Fold:
Amino acid sequence: MQKITQIFRFLFAALSGIFFLCVRILWLICANLILKIAPKRKKDESLLVLFSQVAWCGVWQRPQEEAMGFAQKRPVLYVSPLQAHEPILRYPAWKYKEYIKTGKGLLVFSPLIFPGHYKFKWIYRLNCLLILAELHAALANVKQIDFFTNTPFVEYLGDRLPVSKVIYDIIDDFIAFSWAPAGADEMEKRLLKRADVVLTGTWALYEQKKDMCKEATFVPCGVDFEKFQKPAADSPLPEPEDIRALPRPIIGYTGTLSERIDAGILSGLAKRFPKASLVLIGPVHRHLDDLPALPNIHYLGLKKHSQLPAYLHHCKIALLPFKLTKAVLAINPVKTLEYLAAGCVVVSTAIPDVIRFFSNEVTIASSPDDFIEKMAQLLESDNEERIRKGVERARNATWKNMVETMERIMGNTIDSNEQPKR
Structure:
């Protein structure tokens, strides 16, 4: 019955999204006809187009922070298309277009595309044309852009838009993901060859890609320390209502629940510690049947980034329970610094970048069984010294430093007074 319900929800969401999309396509046809006869208007200069695999309304991480940071010195257009079913099933806060009043201006643009984007070659090609049409309409008055992307699957845009500079920020090994489209390897090779600047968010990705481009630079992520720092005991953040009645201790995870999460670890923890509450915060990007359903596991869904500190401040231990797949071996989870800033004890699987940069602050497990044993030890231990080290480690890592480093590398010295059109 649950599977039937999920199928009907998907069909409803997909059909609703496709209807909106068809209306949008008609608008684009009309808009492009009008633009052909419209008089030329003043051009916007020095616009940064940040095309992201990460939805603006999804889990807040590096791409959104980059957009906010870059917008302090120049107008930014953040583009993150969503498949037609996703606004209903995954991202209820979706907006087609949203203007953020910050710095020189930030316009978030999230057009819809057809479902099955990466599954079917003909849909992928059709969606590529739709994305290109959307961008031509959005950039009708723009003379020149810097094209900044974290996904190799839009490498074709670099030759079809008025691009002066291409920046490729490799935040994940997307070509190693199970859903990557056919020909993903070749797409990335072309982008690496075309890019004027190549950045990586992890050391593992730097090691992988450095010989495939002119030059690559590892630029680590940061954290909003003031937001996540645990306040003094006499002025705590209000406890979120949906965890208020849960048994303690709380074992927490924040982020996307995708194929990269080891469901066996989650199930093992819930069974080993039946009196604890396992609280999982984030969107589910996998079949619910693949995730453990036990009385002490609580799926709370996607929360606003500003709400996460209040949850983490009530977590005894925070988790990085990733499967060690090829794609995962190249990550450096943004949540690590958020956990540490919030004063959490952190346990992780043996992710190379976590071992390299956080072995003094994070407890590393060598296997799923070792993960559970390490948890048992930490639940019984005095972890004050480890917590103190974690807080200090996070204090020295900021998003502002990351953006400033990127700007230096990009040669971004232009300070435009133009703002993106609403």
